[in-house]
Fold:
Amino acid sequence: METSNWILQLLGRLHPLLVHFPIGLLVVSFVLELLTLKGKRNSLREGIKFMVYIGAFFAILSAIVGWLLKTQEDYAGNLVVNHQNTGIATAVLALATAIILNYSLRESKKLTLYRSIFTITIVLLSVAGHLGANLTHGEDYLTAVLPSNNTKYDNENTVALLQDLKSADSLSILQKDKLNLEVRGIFAHKCYQCHGENKKKGELVLENKAGVFKGGETGLAVVPGNAKESEIYKRIILPAGHKDVMPTKGKLLTADEIELIRLWIDEGAHWSDQALKVFPEAELALIKPDLPTATNVNHPVDKLVDSYFAKENIEWSTSVNDRFFIKRAYLDIIGLLPEPAAINTFIEDTDPKKRELLIDELLSDSDNYTQHWLSFWNDLLRNDYSGTGFITRGRSQITGWLYDALQKNKPYDVMVSELMNPNKDSEGFIKGIEWRGLVNASQTTEMQAAQNIGQSLLGTNVKCASCHNSFVSNLTLDQVYGFASIFAKEPLELNRCDIPIGKIAKVNFLYPELGNVDGETIDDRLLKLSEVMISRDNGRLYRTITNRIWDRLMGRGIIEPVDEMDNAPWDGELLDWLSADFIDSGADLKHLIKQIMTSKAYQLPTVNYISAASVKNEYVFKGPLLRRISAEQFSDAISQVITPIYTAVEFNPNEEKMPALRVWHHEKDLTNTVLPLPGARYFRKNFKLDHKQITNASALISVDDVYELFINGKKIGQGSEWTEVGKFDITTHLKAGKNTIAIKGINEGKIDNPASLLFAMKINFKDGKSVKLFSDKTWVSTNVGPSTNWSSVDFNDSKWLEVHNYGTDNWGKLMDFTFNDYQKSFARASLVKQHPFMKALGRPSREIVISKREEQATLLQALELTNGAFFNKKLEQGSKKWLKEYNHNSTLIVDNVYQKLLGRLPSSDEKNILLNALGSEPSTENLQDIFWSVLTSPEFQFIN
Structure:
């Protein structure tokens, strides 16, 4: 029997050797198969066939010996089971791939099915290989090398603690707690990869108290009071190379670590009730530090930065000039370029406080401030106007609530409270995307709420611990499921790596020391959560938003990445002072922005670091980073200076609530509704008025593309662009009794393209009452050219058809389709639904929290700005507009392009080059080139 066991063990241990054959053979043959697509390189077929056959054979053999390895050796746990199951599935699919390939070649069948199965096999092979790597190298094998996860165990603490404990006559409870936590830290860093819940090698688990004292297959791991009889101590003191030495993977324990474990066991193996903090974790408490006594600077931020500079041996640089500052301030606060007149006025101003006054003035421009910062908050709170989840109504907007909060400068703690304990307008944040079909346990709506709150508001990575105990923080699966349970109707069962473990979560906050969030109903729990979240004791909430605002204005957070708030700050006192000052201000976001922007630190020249690595890992603050303007800022600059780039918005803050529908003639092909063909369509609406005196009456109209408007048979006006809302005074054209609105609309497209009508009319009477009439289903239309009196009151339209509504997704909301007094402006990009142009420039889809956009230029952006049809069309439209406005005067055009886009006049050399390019009779194409060259220049693209 013993002989057979060692033979089976030997065969099982061949698994790591054999498993590389199917990996290599199947992957290489798959790559070669890709080269044969579309009938190419048929000469490779014979080689591919034999590699697939041999790869399938070794996949089956590897699965068999892998099974022997698991059954004959001390492997257990979910990770082992998952690796085994994916390995067996890979072997089965590899065999199926070989059989189907053989059949397809022999019967001259198409290779589609074979290729599909082969693709699935390779995917499974990759998963099985990854799980195998986790088994052999630890579950954090891939993630451990990431800069954000490069947390090393501090052996200096071990040495210091050991010296302290050895000098004591007897150990206090506090010292025993420290000793136990230090030993558990050693286990976590050196032993969990083999003896964690997911692997359980030798049936030994060192991840919890029960596992440690239960021991494993070879006996008790720990015998309290007797290290020499404890199996774990026996193993860690064995020499390197011994077959039983522990740990078997990675570096052996140091002499101090071994001595610490011996001392812990001999002192009774006390187990502390405190949670083990393997990774660095920021203090929750927020205490406002005292300001340094700097004599050369007065601003509180600068006092702290001055102290930092002294430590880093950095000299203060001269602040940027007024021209740079005003552009930086405008773009950071309202997202727009300063007008040339505003720049000149600011430069000429001699008031020493003019920069602070400018910041106050811009912050008081609530409309533009809100429409600029809306993009930041939409990204952070994953709020959007359309996309995944909206179709199934499993996701809802918070745009109206968010816009109002920013417009009124609602305190941040109030905003957070209303997000945690939401009303109908703000519930979209914690209301996760309801994915179609089955999802894994970490993608449920309750878990999404926990993940979104953790990342966006607390700077905590909850996603990793949604599946298993985190590899990058101290969060556990229990904690995250407890947090997600706040949002659940029923108790949640914990799933480790999507496998139920038979444990029900207990409701808790991620940081339970801040307060209890349990309650009988979801409403009870959300109310408690809203109170706990905004408590001043929750310094993490206020540090996180302060760090994000600093990052937004300076290009890099005080802590980086901004979603990992347990990382070390480059200046902790600066972050704490700003955060505490933010709370003292009443959580006033504008105060925080002003506090940063009025500092000399903000007004320093921008710094361009050598590499991305130096910004992330070896960062020393010297001033704001050079930042690219955002997709929205770029779009708004074009709209502001050259020509409006977007025709309508998805959210209109000035929208007048009107039930007007965009309607079309109802096109039918026999009994089926079809899209209308281009051409003329005729619309009518009859209505009656009482014998009241009319004070005034007006009409709004938008028709795609060309229209003529008639009231009671008389032509009132016309238009040729649907984005331009026609506004007409019709007071004198109405009468008591029957009235008729008649509209001729023509769509000038060359393909099926709906010709639509949007109309509203408002009549005010002398008695103070008013009547409104809108385009809706009560209107009638025809596509047949009617008689000459078709627009008159007496015309018989009984045979005309009821209009049809095809939907309004392509039109959005026209900002000036309102009867209110409204100064027409261009559509700000933040209010526009995701557009291919902005997507190319880096505006993200907001299905997940986006805390920081990628600023690195991409090939897609280069192609869009070089050859994009949309971009070039807008430059063409702008060129025509400018040539007309400046009467083809090349000198005026060049000067204004530079002043409006760059905030300065061109140099003599620049002017000569551009004037030569434009010529004395500038063409549309030439001016397009001028626009393009300035818009793509670094001076425009970056915030200096």
